[in-house]
Structure formats: structure tokens, C-alpha cells
Amino acid sequence: MLTNQSIGYMDAPVPKDLDLKEAIDKLRKEKNAIILAHYYQTGDIQDIADYVGDSLALAQWAAKTKADIIVLCGVHFMGETAKILCPDKKVLVPDLNAGCSLADSCPAPEFAEFVKQHPGHTVISYVNTTAAVKAVTDVVVTSTNARQIVESFPEGTPMIFGPDRNLGNYINSITGRNMLLWDGACHVHEQFSLEKILSLKKQYPNAEVITHPECKQPVIQVSDFVGSTAALLKHTIKSDAKQFIVATESGVIHEMRKQSPDKEFIPAPPNDSTCACNECNFMRLNTMEKLYNCLKFEMPEIFVDEEVQKKAIKPIKKMLEISEKLGL
Ligand code: 13P
Ligand code: SF4
Questions:
Q1: Is residue 139 part of a domain?
Q2: Helix, strand or coil, per DSSP, at residue 95
Q3: In terms of domains, do 52 and 89 share one?
Q4: Where residue 83 sits, what CATH number does that domain have?
Q5: Residues 56 and 323 sit within 8 Å (Cβ to Cβ)
Q6: Is 188 annotated as a binding residue?
Q7: Which atom of ligand 2 is nearest to the CA of 214?
Q8: Where, by residue number, does iminosuccinate bind (predicted)?
Q9: Using a 6 Å CB cutoff, which residues line ligand 1?
Q10: Same domain, yes or no, for 112 and 180?
Q11: Which of 61, 129, 291, 300 could form a disulfide bond with 96, CB atoms 3.0-4.6 angstroms apart?
């Protein structure tokens, strides 16, 4: 998948005096390409993208675009989801090393074995998984629609949920279901420090703590609002609060500040204050230079095995159909 050739193109030197915004815009128009960016990308990438969204929105836009090329400024599984939905289009990710620790915590052969050991269970997989995991899944979910999709199955339906134990626990707790959970997690969301959030709460008594459901349960429990990146953003727009402690990857604060310039956003601190652990090192591998190179050379490209693609498209389409019915 990761070839020397594509790595070479990723890091090709870019002339210092090049106006990157102009050059990217020119290439996107010439090549009929669409740039989709996740909220965890750097501000400059979010600002140049055609659409910025959460993982559900990225899949929805990929499914309906008429562009010939999709540039997915996000991580590998997001590019893979777009490629599964659009096998005949060219799907590019600026840096092919942009992986995901959560997807990595669920190797497909082990997950397939787990599924085999629990016959009769409906398999729900978070979108943060490889194509091979999606291929043994009944319905894919994102944090925007997980609750509603789980609740669309009759109570008592035996279910497996993978790979995020925190999101799975959270969905079990709010739905009263008892899904069997895969023991995976995201290294960024597991890092947030409860103690530091509580001490920030003392410093900013009127601030709301808003949290992504990939965080650990004690952080979720002290939160005023829990939701996907898109849900957190929407909440900050409509809430009367003027200050927010944001317990998710700090990239999302870029759009929060743009939408509500009069409000204050405080990134929740990680346990280790010497690192920038509230930034996803994978997401941040993409840069404007790599975005330019990827449009210029049409590399690195995402490929998905044909057999896997045919199986993996079914649970993704199911998610999109249910989400459309629910107006998500
Ligand atoms: P969202 O679906 O909320 O955008 O989350 C994606 C993700 O990777 C969270 O870590
Ligand atoms: Fe994956 Fe975590 Fe990064 Fe999201 S923040 S892409 S779950 S490693």
C-alpha cells in the first residue's frame, strides 16, 4: 500500500516562493478534484478545503461527489472509506503515513475471530477501522449516529461493538444495551487528564466541559455535553455559555472560533503537559506542501482490494441509508 514511489512524491520539494493557496486552488480546478478535510486538520488545510466535517460528513460528501479526484485530508481509514464508496475514482491522502491508533488497535484477523466466537451477534463497527474489519461488519457507525443506529435494532439483539471501548461503554450506558466490546482505544482521547480538567473548571466556573465519546468514562462523567466533532461544534454555536473546555483533538477549535468569535475555547490538557498530546500526530502529518504535491502528482493513492471493497461497501451504505432516514 505504502510505496517508496508515493513517499518520494509526498515530500517532493516545493518552491519557497510558491503561493500554495493559489497553486492548490488552480490544480483542484484543472483536475476536477474535491478537497475534503476533517476538523482535526490544521487551520490552513481546513480553510482551503471544499468541505470540512466529521467522519460521517466526509463519507456522505464522498458518496455524492461528481469530482474525478477526492483528496481526503484526514487519516487513512477516512480515505479508505471514500475509496470503498467510490471505487472508480482516484482517492488521495496527502500523507499515506496518516494512520489511526484506534484502527490499529483492531487487527482484522483477530476481530474476525472474535466475531466467529460469538455467532448470532450483529456486528457494529466504528468507522475508525480498516476496510478488512468493515468487511466482517453488519453496520458501520460514527460518533454522530452510533446511538441511533444501535437503537434501531430491537432491544435484546445480541451485538458486538468495536473497536473503541470508551465509545462502546458510553453507548451501552445511554441506551441500556449490553454490547460486547472490543478492547481498543485512541491514544489522543485516552490522554485527557481528569484532574487538570477539574482544576480548569475551578478556574473557569462558568465554562462548559464538552467531550468526544472516545474519552475515558471519568472525563465523560464530568462533562456538560458529549458528542462527535460536528455535534460539539453545533453545541458551541447554540449554547449560551461563553467559555468551553474542549476535550477532543484541538484542531476542532479552529472552526469553533470561526463560528463563535466572541466565545473562549480552552483545550483540555493531556496528562503529560510536556507533550502536545491533545493533537493527533497522524492527522497533523498532512501539510499544505503535501496537499499541493498530492494534487500535482496525483499520489499517494488509496487502494482497496476488490473482494474486500465489495464486502465493506455494504455496512457503510447501510450506515448512510439509516443516517439519511434519521436526517443526520
Ligand atoms: P468524528 O467522527 O467525531 O469526527 O471523530 C473522528 C475521530 O477520529 C475522532 O478521533
Ligand atoms: Fe484515530 Fe485518535 Fe487520531 Fe481520531 S484522534 S484519527 S481516533 S488516532
A1: yes
A2: coil
A3: yes
A4: 3.40.50.10800
A5: yes
A6: no
A7: 7
A8: 38, 55, 126-128, 143, 212-214, 229
A9: 54-55, 128, 142-143, 186, 212, 214, 228-229
A10: yes
A11: 300
Final residue of a domain: which of 241, 265, 289? 265
Cα torsion at 309, 314, 316, 322 (round to 10°)?
170
Q: How far away, in angstroms, is 143 Cα from ligand 1 center?
A: 7
* Per-residue pLDDT tens digits for 218-254: 999 999 999 999 999 999 999 999 999 999 999 999 9
Pairing outcome for strands 225-226 and 180-181: unpaired
Whether pTM > 0.90 for this model: the answer is yes
CB 102 within 8 A of CB 214: yes
* Closest residue CA from atom 5 of ligand 2: 280
Atom 1 of ligand 2, residue of closest alpha carbon: 100
Cell of 128: 475508525
Q: How many domains does the chain contain in total?
A: 3
Q: Same domain for 172 and 118?
A: yes
User: How far apart, in whole angstroms, are the C-alpha atoms of residue 277 and residue 218?
Assistant: 18
Domain that holds residue 135: 100-184
Q: Is 141 annotated as a binding residue?
A: no
Q: Ligand 1 centre and the CA of 78: distance in Å? A: 10
In this structure, are 106 and 168 located in the same domain? Answer: yes
CA pair distance 218, 212, nearest whole angstrom: 12
- Which atom of ligand 2 is nearest the CA belonging to 74? 6
Position 205, amino acid: P
- Paired with 123 in beta bridges are 160
* Nearest-angstrom CA–CA distance, 114 and 116: 5
| Whether 174 and 108 share a structural domain | yes
